[in-house]
Amino acid sequence: MVKKNKNQLYEGMYILASTLSEDARQKALDKVTEGITSRGGEIHVVHEQGRKKLAYEVNGRREGYYYVIYFSIENNQLTEVWREYHLNEDLIRFMTLRTDKVEEKLEFKPLVQS
Fold first, then answer.
1. How much is the pTM?
2. pLDDT averaged over the chain?
3. Based on the number of CB atoms within 10 Å of its own CB, is 35 exposed (0-12), middle (13-18) or buried (19 or more)?
């Protein structure tokens, strides 16, 4: 039985180096999105979350620029996209999850201290 490849909707969280200029940061983000679109994927929404402190130090870095991207791509192409991400030196961390819907607006609740 041959497994059929189909488009899946994904939510990706990307953290880019905080040391990048605005122009370099845009080029790094373009590299991420082009990795998806060059393999037949479609970008639905890009949410820029801004510069934030990392939860822990990563390769000597304490801050990064956070982006959440909703995209769809054939499930067999995702591994190739991930492989390309690992070659992107400006991409500190990334995470991809399958999702059912595109969030048009992201809201995070403030941390409550007790």
1. 0.85
2. 88
3. buried
